[in-house]
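Worked example 3 (structure in, sequence out).
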């Protein structure tokens, strides 16, 4: 089963996920799979929770639809080839935790980037600020490739992108707001590297990231790249 990092859930997806886990059975299933060291089948989930298989199947399908679970199919028992039976459908948690905020915040992403930068600096001796720039750029490139377009990436990550009336885009929200207030230089530099990486990941040469001098909401904005 592929456990590669997923892009952050959009704000709408976050609220849908929280609502989905409001059901006690779905919450039990999600917590069971999150705590499990291996993917589980529908039958294993039903037996562990003492619930009917039909009930468990319905709720597992809903959790998959909401992006909270990953699905894989594996042959069980070690047998392969003709006569070995159909693969078993297995489930695993796609995210470690679910939360939603208004406006959208992604302190988890910031924490991951900062911790990765410190580790990189310790391991390589690279200046920690340079390490943070490199780590944030690489993360932005990965997120941008997943999103497909830079505007979709901005929406997914909580920037609330809006046209500025001159062909550019302002960010009406900062997903790292409290951190940026307390550590402006560090967080804004990280943010710029993340967004520049996102442009590369999207293959977007039509836009550039520039400082937003007003900084009413975010330290950066998108502008059309000069021809």
């Amino acid at each position: 089963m592929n456990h590669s990092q997923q892009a952050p859930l959009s704000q709408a997806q976050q609220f849908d996920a929280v609502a989905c886990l409001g059901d006690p059975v779905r919450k039990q299933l999600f917590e069971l799979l999150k705590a499990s060291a291996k993917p589980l089948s529908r039958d294993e989930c039903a037996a562990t929770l003492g619930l009917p298989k039909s009930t468990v199947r319905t709720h597992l399908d809903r959790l998959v639809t909401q992006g909270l679970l990953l699905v894989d199919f594996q042959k069980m028992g070690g047998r392969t080839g003709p006569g070995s039976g159909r693969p078993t459908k297995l489930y695993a948690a796609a995210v470690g935790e679910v939360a939603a905020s208004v406006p959208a915040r992604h302190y988890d992403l910031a924490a991951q980037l900062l911790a990765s930068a410190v580790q990189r600096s310790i391991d390589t001796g690279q200046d920690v600020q340079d390490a943070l720039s490199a780590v944030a750029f690489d993360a932005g490139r990965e997120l941008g490739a997943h999103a497909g377009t830079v505007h979709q990436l901005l929406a997914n990550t909580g920037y609330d992108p809006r046209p500025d009336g001159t062909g550019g885009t302002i960010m009406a929200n900062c997903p790292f707001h409290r951190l940026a207030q307390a550590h402006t230089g560090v967080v804004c530099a990280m943010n710029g590297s993340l967004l520049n990486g996102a442009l590369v990941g999207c293959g977007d040469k039509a836009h550039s990231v520039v400082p937003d001098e007003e900084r009413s909401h975010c330290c950066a904005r998108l502008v059309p790249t000069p021809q």
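Notes: The longest helix spans residues 128-147. The CA atoms of residues 159 and 173 lie 5 Å apart.
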